[in-house]
Every structure is written in C-alpha cells, then in structure tokens.
Amino acid sequence: YSSDSMDKMVNDYFNGSFKSMVSFFVKKKDMSVDELESILKEINKEH
C-alpha cells in the first residue's frame, strides 16, 4: 500500500522522477550533507 502511494505521489507531483522528489525534500528540510550521506548508507545496507 505505501509503495503504491509513494509511486502515485512521485508520478503526480514529480513527473515520475524520484531524483526530483528527493531533491525537493532535501531542500525543503534544509538537510545537511551528513544527513543525506547517512540516509544513503542505510539504503545501501538494504541492497
């Protein structure tokens, strides 16, 4: 369910681009490079 909701949001608001969505949230929440790197490390652990 949550995956479908995320896909719909990405398609509706970011023209299908996950990169655009991530960029939007990074800018909106004023994330630091360290925070973004931490997220990337977590993602890489799962793959």
UniProtKB/TrEMBL annotation:
GO MF annotation list: DNA binding
Name recorded for this polypeptide: BlaI/MecI/CopY family transcriptional regulator
Keyword Cytoplasm: no
Keyword annotations: DNA-binding, Transcription, Transcription regulation
Keyword Zinc-finger belongs to the record: no
InterPro entries, sorted: BlaI_family, WH_DNA-bd_sf
Transmembrane parts of this sequence: none
One of the protein's GO biological processes: negative regulation of DNA-templated transcription
